[in-house]
Design a protein that fits this description.
By secondary structure, the protein is an alpha+beta fold. The chain contains five helices and nine strands; from the N terminus they run αββββαββαααβββ. The chain is elongated.
């Protein structure tokens, strides 16, 4: 690997690009944190090559959708144990329920993914018994395209504009760490090597 700031950013973009394509990639489902200290695993759906934006899908009815709303701090943590590379990112999150980005994400989602949004109770809602909140007829199959459309109103997109990135590679010699910060997604990164 090219141990320059541009080489590290290229490494991050490559890792996240591969994570989007493969559910088996260790960074496919990073940990997402919100300002209330709550953490959850979410599937990474998009990472722009310039690392300006990350996209995840979420249920509009979830508490995090309400908390993030039009703008709140969101943290992202991903780790590749084989490469011993940790990525910590932070930025401004926002939820898009309707509009071209959410509509395009919904259109591109698989029927299996759309099935999640057919749940009769939103995330965190009380249930009478253990199990999924899906309708009984949907427990063992994917919906048809027509059936899936009933879930569109529950679907939303979480966008994270990345303002800070911390890259750490653990080594037997103590590790290598780089930190990148910027004011907005269109600003230049301010880069520094820091102690692991």
């Amino acid at each position: 690997m090219d141990l320059t700031f541009s080489g590290v950013l290229a490494d991050v973009a490559t890792r996240l690009g591969e994570a989007i394509k493969s559910a088996r990639h260790p960074m496919h489902a990073p940990v997402i944190g919100t300002a209330d200290g709550d953490l959850r695993i979410m599937v990474l759906r998009e990472a722009t090559p310039d690392l300006s934006r990350l996209r995840f899908h979420t249920d509009w009815r979830s508490p995090k959708a309400t908390m993030i709303g039009d703008g709140a701090t969101v943290s992202v943590l991903a780790y590749d144990p084989a490469a011993r590379v940790q990525l910590r990112m932070q930025g401004l999150g926002r939820i898009e329920h309707h509009g071209p980005i959410a509509d395009a994400a919904w259109s591109a989602a698989t029927l299996t993914s759309k099935r999640c949004y057919l749940a009769q109770t939103g995330p965190g809602g009380a249930l009478d018994a253990p199990g999924a909140a899906l309708p009984e007829y949907m427990l063992d199959r994917s919906p048809t395209a027509e059936e899936a459309e009933a879930g569109r109103d529950n679907f939303a997109v979480l966008l994270v504009e990345v303002h800070a990135l911390d890259w750490l590679q653990l080594t037997h010699h103590g590790g290598i760490r780089a930190r990148f910060e910027r004011e907005s997604a269109t600003s230049e990164w301010q880069s520094a090597w820091v102690a692991p």
